[in-house]
Amino acid sequence: MALRYVGRYATTRAKLCSYLARKLRERGWDGTGEPDLEALAGRLAGLGYIDDAAYALSKAQALSARGFGKRRLEEKLRHAGVDEEDGLAAREHAGAQAVDAALRFAERRRLGPFASAIPDPKQREKSLAAMVRAGHPFGLARAIVRLGPGEQIDREELREQSGFNP
Predict the structure, then answer these.
(1) Are residues 59 and 30 located together in one domain of the fold?
(2) From CA 81, how far away is CA 99, in angstroms rounded?
(3) In the prediction, which pLDDT does 124 show?
(4) Which end of the chain is more exposed for a tag (fewer CB within 10 A), N or C?
(5) Do residues 96 and 138 share a domain?
(6) Does 79 share its domain with 7?
(7) Cα separation, 45 vs 33, whole angstroms
(8) Are residues 27 and 77 in the same domain?
(9) Is residue 103 domain-shared with residue 137, that is, in the same domain?
């Protein structure tokens, strides 16, 4: 069951253990003693079937490409059970891509410089809230939302205005 799962899905050791524990509860266990799921997950990781760091980096790349920020990535990694060491490269990637990801999100949602008209203050607040919920730092989100429709985008200036340094 474990091999089929890791062959089909990109996963982490913690997610595999959770899956196997759920399946054992559903189907029952007739062996002697409790099965050592951690050891099984560790063995599969040792064989290269599971790589938490690669999972974390691919998750970071996918979320950045879709316009989500570092905070959203950290939430996903915490949920997947990725530890600090394995998630380091993913967090660095998310930090380096922060401005680009925020601009992708703004473009997809037609916020700030991608809006068709100057938003009223209430709509600007909603736009800011949407960007923060997407995991972007408040300062960066505010700087993007303040840009007028069609206004020229200077990525370095956005970094400076937001006070955000990856």
Answers:
(1) no
(2) 26
(3) 93
(4) N
(5) yes
(6) no
(7) 23
(8) no
(9) yes
Structure tokens at 34: 């409790």
Non-local CB neighbours of 116 within 8 Å, separated by 6+ positions: 110, 149
> Do both 82 and 144 map to the same domain?
yes
Q: Are 114 and 149 in contact (CB under 8 A)?
A: yes
> In sequence order, which residues have a C-beta less than 8 Å from that of residue 90 and are 6 or more positions away?
53, 56, 57, 59, 60, 73, 77, 82
Residue-range definition of the domain harbouring residue 125: 52-162
Q: Note the pLDDT of residue 32.
A: 83
pTM of the predicted model as reported, rounded to 2 decimal places: 0.86
Q: Which residues of the chain are under the pLDDT cut of 50?
A: none
Query: Under the phi-then-psi rule, with left for phi > 0, alpha for psi from -120 to 50, and beta for the rest, what region is 32?
Result: beta
Specify the pLDDT at position 31. Answer: 80
| Burial of residue 135, with CB atoms counted within 10 A of its CB: 0-12 exposed, 13-18 middle, 19 or more buried | buried
Predicted local distance difference test score (pLDDT) of residue 64: 95
| Distance of alpha carbon 162 from alpha carbon 125, whole angstroms | 16
Q: How many domains does one find in the chain?
A: 2
DSSP letter at 112 equals G
Task: Express each pLDDT in 86-104 by its tens digit.
Answer: 999 999 999 999 999 999 9
- Distance separating alpha carbons of residues 108 and 86, to the nearest angstrom: 30
pLDDT of residue 106: 95
Give the DSSP H or E segment for 6.
helix 2-8
Assigned token pair, 65: 């490409």
